[in-house]
Amino acid sequence: MARSLAVLVALALAQTNAWGRGGDDRRCADTPNAEAAIAACTRLYENEGLGSRNRAIALGNRGAALKILGHYDEAIADFALAIELDPKNPQYRCQRGDILVRKKEFAEAIADYSQALKRAPSYAWAYHGRGQAHLALGNGEAAVADFSKALRARPGEFSLLVLRGRANLQQNSYEAATADFSEALTSPTMKRRLPKERAAVLSLRAFALLKQGRAREASPDAEEAVKLAPKNTFALSVMGLIDEQLGRRPEAKQSFARALAVEPKLEAAQKGLERLSQSATVTGTLPDPVPQPTPPAESRAPSNAAEELCARYFPTVGQTLLVACDR
To answer: Minimal CA–CA distance to 288: which of 297, 279, 296?
Structure first.
């Protein structure tokens, strides 16, 4: 999703010599150098001879630089002024929508993205951002619809596929989620991703498979995820659920314990250990760490623990977590 207005700056350069005077145009467009960009954009904005459209571009770039510095309220004010100066440009509403998502003001963000789409009905940036806001609010159906529209403009984009997969998980569409995560894992950009990103997608696909009763197929994904990211509590919890469903109690307890060592209050892992301890008491078997013989796979009674949990994306922590499905 583009965040810079440098393309518009280039257009402005072609239209007016005044814009490029003193090199402020280049400095204003260089949002990673935030402080220098803010100063240059301010000078450009204050030059009324540039006209409304170019002054709006300067405000848009200054807002982007302020966002990098975490000055969200100031950035929002700049985007509001840019919208007044150039109301037909959807980028300023998307820029402001992105900040509102970061501020957890999701309803306001949705309003901005929706206004942007009125100006540009096929704008992938707006669908991407609005989908994230819907996902954060727990509206999986609307999120899937928006991510699907964004994917029409950007087929196969890794982040959009993962987000749509999360949205499908949120509305219990496990087959669709599995397809999205599988496509993301075969994305050409996958090789450039960090190991923890691959681990996150693998653990999500493992959970989607588990919810379909396909624990044996899910197991290799979870195992690889844990190898890539040994402290990923979602991956460890999913591995515990898979082992629990397959009747591998010692392995399940170990995975849940590892997850709790990283995050002591992790509810999914706590409840997993409680279920396994209760099972040991009921059956009269000794609790771990005393090892017990593992019965043949055919004779193991699978647990339905996975049916009690759902994966939900929490924007406050930027992660998908396992929670009770009725929440």
So the answer is: 279
Dihedral sign from CA coordinates of 136, 142, 146, 152: positive
Residues 111, 112, 115, CA angle at the centre, nearest 5°?
A: 85
The confidence band for 288, taking pLDDT boundaries of 50, 70 and 90, is very low
pTM for the whole thing?
0.82
Tokens of 30: 């260089």
Nearest to 63 by CA among 111, 23, 8, 21: 8
Digit-coded pLDDT (tens) for 105-144: 999 999 999 999 999 999 999 999 999 999 999 999 999 9
Helices (H), 69-173: 72-85, 90-102, 106-119, 124-136, 140-153, 158-170
Domain residues of the chain, as ranges? 194-287+302-327
Q: What is the residue-wise DSSP string for 202-245?
A: HHHHHHHHHHTT-HHHHHHHHHHHHHH-TT-HHHHHHHHHHHHH
Long-range contacts from 68-77, C-beta under 8 angstroms, 24+ separation = 68/31, 68/32, 68/34, 69/34, 69/35, 72/99, 72/102, 72/103, 75/99, 76/100
Domain 194-287+302-327: CATH superfamily is Tetratricopeptide repeat domain (1.25.40.10)
